[in-house]
Amino acid sequence: MVELTIQVSDDLAHRLQPLRNRLAEIIELGLRDLTPSQNILYNEVIEFFAGGPTPRAIIAFHPSVETQHRLVELLDRNQVGTLTPEEKTELDQYESLDYLFTLVKARARQRLTKAA
Q1: From the centroid of its chain, how far is CA 105?
Q2: Domain count, the chain
Q3: Most exposed residue of 5, 17, 43, 79, measured as fewest CB within 10 angstroms of its CB?
Q4: Which pLDDT tens digit goes with each residue over 14-25?
Q5: Is pTM beyond 0.70 here?
């Protein structure tokens, strides 16, 4: 393990003090946000929404077969404990997108119900 020393503002140091045991995790999460995603599902979702889908299209959306195969592979590797840190990040992204899409599809269903 490497020790890292950084300089931060007094205000930031004060805010980080209660979280000092989680600083490595905080930095890791920050790096995820700064690193462009190579996750193919992110790209599929971006392209899908860029096309201005209707509520029916949102409800019908499913990831590509390629993405589904990748997800199964990650889930299998996670189950046996052989995920790399990068794959763990990728799996976390899939889970976040799945949750987001569940909410978006529910809202699209509500809109269709109100319009009927």
Answers
A1: 17
A2: 1
A3: 5
A4: 998 998 898 888
A5: no
